[in-house]
Amino acid sequence: METLYNILIDPFVQMYEAPDFLMQVLWEGLVSGVLYALIALGFVLIFKSSRIFNFAQGIMVVFAALTLVGLHENGVPAWLAVPLTLGVMYVLAVGIERVVLRPLVGQPDIILFMATIGVTLFLIGFGEFVFGGENKVMITEALGIPTGALEFNPFGGFVLIEEKDLTAVVMAVLLVFALITFLNYSSMGRAIRALGDDHQAALSVGISLSTIWVIVWFIAGVIALATGIVWGARAGVSFALEVIAYKALPVLMLGGLESVSGAIVGGLAIGILEKLFEIYWGQPFLGGNTETWFAFILALIVLLFRPQGLFGERIIERV
Amino acid sequence: MTATAQARAPQKDAKDAAETILSVNNIEVIYDHVVLVLKGVSLTVPKGGIVALLGANGAGKTTTLKAISNLLQAERGEVTKGSIEFHGEQVQALSPNALVRRGCIQVMEGRHCFGHLSIEDNLLTGAYTRRDGYTEVRRDLEMVYEYFPRLRERRTSQAGYTSGGEQQMCAVGRALMSRPEMILLDEPSMGLAPQLVEEIFEIVQKLNKHEGVSFLLAEQNTNVALKYATYGYIMEAGRIVLDGDAAALRENEDVKEFYLGVGSEGRKSFRDVKHYKRRKRWLA
């Protein structure tokens, strides 16, 4: 009885008794959630427009961050290093389209998936060759990201918000809004959505696959850079950063591979839920470190009941 | 192998080049490097004409259209011989995108609307290749709504949830948004009620008359197609077996017998298969 009380009731009592701490937890969850959402968006865009599950998304984060830091180390000022890195990501997008995607048009999806694994391996090798394998520090100050912390005192308590995290959230939100606007209100965005619906028909109205693919992979590159900067500022820039892209996998399962809104909601939900679970259940009962697996279990449960994901696009079937 | 050599020498008797918008010269199409689907197909479409491409299932109508619009590549099909000329320019090496820019667009069999996009968004995707600005596109959108008033009513619905007729209209309207000179229309009657089929063909005729759009339409519904078309080609097993003015084809005994279902001696039975084969050889 007592254990049941401890598991089912007590955490909520704690939440109620220390609302400031709860807010702190929620905020931390929100920060990682926003990032998960951002990475998931990169996956969703590429999947929607080309039916490719882009295995290379994670390594693109590392590659973008490494390029940025590497350029800065070689004396390029930060304000120039960012557009230059974007340029590199653009060249990468064009290269992938030319060398990998175009020759494989019309091949089964799994072959394209394997090709992205090839891209991943190439980027790992190439990245290490150019930038070396050791950990680097993100150039947070040089980029003008504030590093202080803000204090709030709600309910007579105490909440600490790092400006770094605040910047991350603001940047991610702006990026997401820009993306949604682009997808819904520009002719190119409309073409991307159309391509997601019906490849053949998109081709037939003259939508050019190669143009769209370059754009989509470039967007994925921009997202990779943004995530790389933000996550690099928290955890340093190394090849281990690749792992956070895999944290986006449960988000995709939860949100559906094709749904932009699903990626956003799924990302936020997973970020917040895993933090809550870790603090109120994981640490007291399971010895902590539940964040590494919680999201996957959650996704597994969702998949059991809704195979298309919580927000997956309904397959329109007319009878 | 000899594709270029073949392409250089125009095969078909050059029907007044100035009047021809599309000419297909003896093309051969191979899928997956092994399956020979078209075995030398030639046809011409005059500017401002409606030409019907008729034949049974699997005769190669769709493949012919896709060869012209270059959608074959995505299906691992390939034009291995012959040439395709649009406005006198060789187009078989162009991408579908480049061809749409030149004014030739395909409406695919089975409608293929973008299911999750609204009808209006569907129509607007048709204007993807255009660079003449927002107001022009809006004006054409209005024009499409005039031709298809039903689409205006459904403009905000997701295309996937509209009826088959509305989807067909949407597909044709979407093609119109690219300001085409020529539309390759594949099986517009598929799965539609007879009344709707007539409606669609009426609109095709109107578009032809008022907007000057030339049509090459593949149809199984020989009856309706020959009613609206000016000229017809009949395909069988990857070849053209018969062609002629629509009026003449309608009166042709063989066509009546094989495609219109009215034989000179009433209904046919399986006994006549042999007879049919013999006749076919003669036709080819």
Tell me what the structure shows.
The complex is a heterodimer of chains A (319) and B (284). Chain A has 319 residues and is mainly α. Chain A has one domain (2-305): ABC transporter involved in vitamin B12 uptake, BtuC (Orthogonal Bundle). Chain A contains 13 helices and two strands. A two-stranded antiparallel ribbon of chain A has the order 1-2. In chain A, helix 4 packs antiparallel against helix 11, helix 11 packs parallel to helix 13 (291-305) and helix 12 (260-286) crosses helix 13 (291-305). The longest helix of chain A has 32 residues, at 19-50. The relative contact order of chain A is 0.18. The model of chain A has no long low-confidence stretch (mean pLDDT 85). Chain B has 284 residues and is of the alpha/beta class. In chain B, helix 8 links the parallel strand 7 (182-186) and strand 8 (214-219). Chain B folds into two domains: 3-103 and 181-283, P-loop containing nucleotide triphosphate hydrolases (Rossmann fold, 3-Layer(aba) Sandwich), CATH 3.40.50.300; 112-179, no CATH class. Residues 1-18 of chain B have low confidence and may be disordered. In chain B, 45% of the residues are buried. The longest helix of chain B is centred in the last third of the chain and has 18 residues, at 194-211. In chain B, helix 4 runs parallel beside helix 7. Chain B has helices at 3-8, 61-69, 96-102, 119-125, 134-147, 149-153, 164-176, 194-211, 222-228, 246-251, 253-260, 273-283, and strands spanning 20-31, 35-46, 50-54, 77-86, 89-90, 104-107, 182-186, 214-219, 231-236, 239-245. Chain B: Belongs to the ABC transporter superfamily. Chain B: One of its GO terms (molecular function) is branched-chain amino acid transmembrane transporter activity. Chain B: Residues 22-262 form the ABC transporter domain.
